[in-house]
Amino acid sequence: MKMMRFGLLLLLVLEMVAYPTIAAEQPSDSEIIARIAPNYNRQDIPKGKVTIFVQLYIKDVMKIDIDANTWDVEFIIRQQWEDSRLDTREYITASTLGDFATIWVPDTFITNSRAETAVPMERANKLLRIFPYGKIMYSSRYRMTLACPMSLSKFPFDEHNCSISIGSYGHTVDRIDYSWVVYKSKTPVIVADNALHAGMNLVNVFTHETTAHLNTGEYKSIVGTLLLQRNPYSYKVSLFVPNILLGVLLGLSFLVSHRAPHARMLLLAVLVSLVIGQNYLALRNVPILPYRTCLDCWSYSMAAFCVLAVIGFAISTSVAQFKDCDMEEKLGSPRKMWKDPGTKTDLIFGSLYLVSFIIFQIAFWAMTLA
Q1: What kind and span of H or E run contains 116?
Q2: Quick one: which of 4, 18, 141, 241 could link to 125 by a disulfide (CB 3.0–4.6 Å)?
Q3: What is the pTM of this model?
Q4: How far are the Cα atoms of 51, 128, 344 from residue 136, in angstroms, in the given order?
């Protein structure tokens, strides 16, 4: 028993003595770089042409501002390149550095940025790792307001190409070249499942490259673009479907006898007020633009149909005042009521209204959904 206690005590003492020795052997970031490359200077770009392989992960689309033509997005850029000066095979297989100022990193920036918001816990949102053969992986998280030129001519069925453009701030394409890379995913631009919650649907994701020709040389940028389509469900439910039903009711109002002008006038007043009110509420949320939108065309057309219904009511009422409308005494049969001038006027205007309304619906939805 005493020997067992002595053995456990001895193991405990040895562990206490060995632990600080092990901890002391863990090199710092600067020591790692000094071991790998004694003459390493982080200000010097690696020799030759450096190719930066980039993958983009979009975490959140926080806001799409149609007034300012911008979108607020949070994303992660993963960059990978090779620096032959940092071959770690003789020392370690891989190392994660906490001090990002110890090695050279590309001067990558977002070319279409309007503003940048600081991400909380900035140090925890960057990762720098050295792999064997001098491979460097640098991952950083951003939260920015980016430019997104928009055309609202098909609002609320509009589509927009919102992009993230990545390039070098001070090096030409002959020194730093950017290229998209695909790892385990099928696309270099990955969008989180719950990233879009600003009333937009993701239609497609595509990438391309651009080159800016300046006096100091050519600067290459790689662009990841999201094709976003507005979700028109709320407009369909609150505007288009009710307007169509009200428009049909306006056409059916011609079936109300002109001999009941007060009832017909009340019905027209209610229907016209509902149509105008719904379109006013919809247009109130649209910014003032120098061009017309689909919503403008819809609202103006519905106002025209309201005017047509009122004109038809006025004309049929005026025509009926010049004739004796007592059909039971004059014509003696319900079938001969079609000979009444007021009824004929209602039939003509009602048919004209409904035919025009159907043609407008077919043309509008054919052009909008094309």
Answers
A1: strand 113-116
A2: 141
A3: 0.77
A4: 11, 7, 85
pLDDT in tens, the chain (370 residues): 555 554 545 545 445 444 444 434 556 656 666 666 667 777 888 888 999 999 999 999 999 998 889 999 999 999 999 988 887 665 555 566 655 667 889 999 999 999 877 666 555 678 888 887 788 999 999 999 999 999 999 999 999 999 999 999 999 999 999 999 987 777 899 999 889 876 889 999 999 999 999 998 999 999 999 999 999 998 999 999 999 999 999 999 988 877 788 888 899 999 999 999 999 999 887 888 888 999 999 999 999 999 999 998 888 887 776 654 454 445 445 445 445 677 788 888 889 999 999 999 999 999 988 7
Long-range contacts at 357-364 (CB < 8 A, ≥ 24 apart): 357/247, 357/248, 357/251, 357/305, 360/301, 360/305, 361/244, 364/294, 364/297, 364/298, 364/301
Cis-peptide into 156, omega within 30 deg: yes
Q: Where are the alpha helices (DSSP H) in 25-73?
A: 29-36
Question: What is the rounded CA–CA span in Å between residue 62 and residue 369?
Answer: 27
* The 3-state secondary structure of 60-97, one letter per residue: EEEEEECCCCEEEEEEEEEEEEECCCCCCCCCCCCEEE
